[in-house]
Specification:
Elements: H1 8-17, H2 22-45, H3 53-70, H4 80-95, H5 99-106
Length: 112
């Protein structure tokens, strides 16, 4: 039975540990970047139907990472909103070069 988290602060280190491999995180970055690009393109062009592709772009890469690389169950199955927020937080921290400190605090070994 999965542990029940009652706050995002408690969930965040768990989320990072579930993304312990660099290739898992990289696949998430690809999916999240595509989500952002598709959303921006839809807004700029007014082609709102493109927004239908957001879940496919985001989840495809994440699920390939979890089932194929990390060999674990995506946290989004149990914590969908916190997982979404954590994915964008992880992506933003990676873009800003500040993710390493968070991985260290969560006990995720480097270089995996």
């Amino acid at each position: 039975m999965p542990r029940l988290y009652t706050s995002f602060a408690a969930f965040w280190p768990f989320y990072l540990r579930e993304h312990s491999k660099a290739s898992t995180r990289a696949l998430h970055y690809v999916g999240t970047s595509l989500v952002v690009l598709i959303a921006i393109a839809a807004m700029v062009t007014g082609r709102w139907m493109w927004l239908i592709a957001l879940p496919l772009a985001g989840y495809f890469f994440a699920w390939v990472a979890h089932f194929g690389v990390e060999k674990n169950r995506p946290a989004t199955f149990t914590y969908p909103l916190w997982s979404l927020a954590a994915d964008f937080r992880m992506w933003a921290l990676w873009l800003s070069g500040r993710l390493g400190r968070e991985l260290d605090k969560a006990g995720v070994p480097r270089g995996r």
